[in-house]
Amino acid sequence: MTADRSAALTELIAALGPALSLDPTELDAARADKSGQRAADAPLAIVHARTADDVVAALRVATAHRLPVVPRGAGTGLAGGAMAGRDRLVVSTARMTRILEIDAVNQLAVVEPGVIVAELDAAAREQGLFYAPDPASRAWASIGGTIATGAGGLMCVKYGVTREAVLALDVVLADGTRERFGHRTAKGVTGLDLTALMVGSEGTLGVIVGATVRLTPVPRGETATIAAMLPSVVAAAAASSAIMASGLRPAALELIDPLSLAAIHRHLRLEAPAAGGTHLLVQCDGEQSGDDAERALAIIRAHGGDGRLTTDPADAERLLTVRRSFHPAMEATGHVLIEDVAVPRSRLAEMFAAIERISADHGVPIPTVAHAGDGNLHPNFVYTGDTVPEPVWRAAHAVFRAALALGGTLTGEHGVGVLKKRHLVEELGESQLALQRRIKAAFDPLGIMNPDAVL
Amino acid sequence: MTADRSAALTELIAALGPALSLDPTELDAARADKSGQRAADAPLAIVHARTADDVVAALRVATAHRLPVVPRGAGTGLAGGAMAGRDRLVVSTARMTRILEIDAVNQLAVVEPGVIVAELDAAAREQGLFYAPDPASRAWASIGGTIATGAGGLMCVKYGVTREAVLALDVVLADGTRERFGHRTAKGVTGLDLTALMVGSEGTLGVIVGATVRLTPVPRGETATIAAMLPSVVAAAAASSAIMASGLRPAALELIDPLSLAAIHRHLRLEAPAAGGTHLLVQCDGEQSGDDAERALAIIRAHGGDGRLTTDPADAERLLTVRRSFHPAMEATGHVLIEDVAVPRSRLAEMFAAIERISADHGVPIPTVAHAGDGNLHPNFVYTGDTVPEPVWRAAHAVFRAALALGGTLTGEHGVGVLKKRHLVEELGESQLALQRRIKAAFDPLGIMNPDAVL
Prior knowledge:
Two copies of one chain form a homodimer.
Chain A: H1 3-16, E1 20-21, H2 24-29, E2 45-48, H3 52-64, E3 69-72, E4 89-92, E5 99-103, E6 108-111, H4 117-125, E7 129-130, H5 143-149, H6 156-159, H7 162-165, E8 166-172, E9 178-182, H8 194-198, E10 207-214, E11 216-217, E12 224-230, H9 233-245, E13 252-256, H10 258-267, E14 278-284, H11 289-302, E15 306-310, H12 313-324, H13 326-331, E16 335-338, H14 348-362, E17 368-371, E18 376-383, H15 390-405, H16 424-428, H17 430-443
Parallel strand pairs in A: 2-4, 3-4
Antiparallel strand pairs in A: 1-2, 5-6, 6-10, 7-11, 8-9, 8-10, 12-14, 12-15, 13-14, 13-17, 16-18, 17-18
Keywords (chains A, B): FAD, Flavoprotein, Oxidoreductase
Cofactor (chains A, B): FAD
Protein name (chains A, B): Glycolate oxidase
């Protein structure tokens, strides 16, 4: 360790006391997130911030010593944005877990960043409200992390993305300055919208130390759930697109391709599905949910499929098991690189066809699930060993390029992080990337905030 | 005119030909927007851009000569953001009026910035869709201008603000660089969200030359409209808050205070309303609209009011006449300065009480209407003469400070422009204002973009 790093550590210990950890096990854990990847070396230290003041203190020392900072929530990201390597200072807000306020009249919550998404949702439901953004990791992911990554989820298709749920943010900038962005009001256009800019900024602009988020009234009526099988992925993609084009707004519309479905069946020790068989899960909520689900089912039938509709919550849970078993089924077979491309909904079938071609060309199986109502696909690459093999990277790159060619984007909801950084310039172009870097410099002139990620 | 200004004009004429106007009548018109204010002097010239290339050409010359640029849409803004004074080059996109595409399957439209909001909405409705942002000026306001100001409207309460409707933007930066921000996809988190940053940036970052916007399926079922009277503004504010807190999501929830109502009645030559009488307009859409409206009416009755409910479109139009006559009624009595504060919905009654106190203290009547479902108030200051009298500015300032004290904001949907710039630092603070200026400099290092507005 250099003399300056050593001096920085001494200052951090003085400023933070027990909130600073040098525990090797903790440092080792901070090398990784849920992407399956890890940094080559462990970071310098971890700040387990208890308050915003701890974050301020940590960033002041970091700025004084030009120490690279990696903000970290619950560490459940899928793009490597929280992976911390050599000489990095990890600033974790995972222990700032208080729900400060649930304001039922104004339908908002004020929370610390370490609050787990599912816990906020549960607290809101006690007052007839819910927190709409529902990433698949909602039981483990933190509010701060999901805002920093712009995380999506199943219900975005009806209730919008994370950006739309964030009203205001408390942020600590690289030099330790605290700022409040946004409003507690439903509307507000005072100055540039820095709240929206922070959402999805992946720790490159500052550390989120508080959030005021919108809550939504729980819809009246039952939830109707359809689990359907269609004869091919093309038929299922076409049915999804038709359901959305009909004006229906399902609360979830999920597609599981044949390869994924076969893997799930193996994992659950079920009989193998029919060749080409593709699974579609549709949930409708609100007082018209029964009618809406009948309409969706009719569209599925018109596309050669059929399914079962239930309004019984326990029965619906069983139908959801197939979708929920996807990630465990993948992880049971090896390490998984999860891609996250999005295409216009109408191009979903073409994107599946492209993935099939890429799979054949590169000799790599690519089981894929999709938030079909949003045109957001998760092609999965399963591999063995500690690092992603080059043929897998090449196939992943081809998938990304195919999405771009269909008018799509690199990442719908996971973020760029470290793992997708290599593709960024292809989507944004050199001049926009330079502009994004200038904007980052306006927040972080020394470039210490998450320097390995995104920009 | 200096030699350099003269050289700049020569280059503009060469580059733009007939798209450049020096017509004194047009230059005089560009001094003003719909705020009732105007710049002291006329601008240098107006570019009536026909294409994005015209904008590029204009901004290259502007950058070469450090010519201040005022982007302009339809000129219907209410905060002076498009008012152009001495030596300014106006870049108008009002003549870029093509709807390039309505994609019914993906529920989006691709438009040039000069398309009028109501025209896009009408074109979308032919395909069973609509464009949700509906500023009161929708019949005259352009898409580009409403995006640049982050304009709101009546239906934000159910369908969200303009930011949520914008998927992608084509932008020309100060130096003439063209950039594409955002995605055609429903989701996307690739890099910093510069689309959201552009919304509400009021011409300070670049010129919007194209937009990809989200369309929404027209809800099935009838629209139910309630026109109600309540005995006081406090009762009406409480009823509004209770309607929203009940979980109902009306498509519009508008409040007209006693002073405004009396002015409207005078303007329409109706009998004077009862003293303290406050008008509430509620619209519910969707298949449950009748039930929802009955629930809203029950809440109004529980607050001492009563009203009439109709599902007949022609009858509803008549009920809407009162709300629609507000601005004409104000303008009939003099020049109007329209404020635009927003407060948390639950503080609406307190805000009305504060306005009443400020009115008495300053000896200035302040008729006020509110998008009550959003807590967004428009206090109006009517005056005679060409400039806003100082007592009016002082009262407007007191209104703004009262909103801030209630956890509110300076502007809910009109923007800061030139007229509210003086208040900006009070809401943002010095350090955030400095940060916003650094971000502007990342887009516009010479500071030529709308230099009189906002920052």
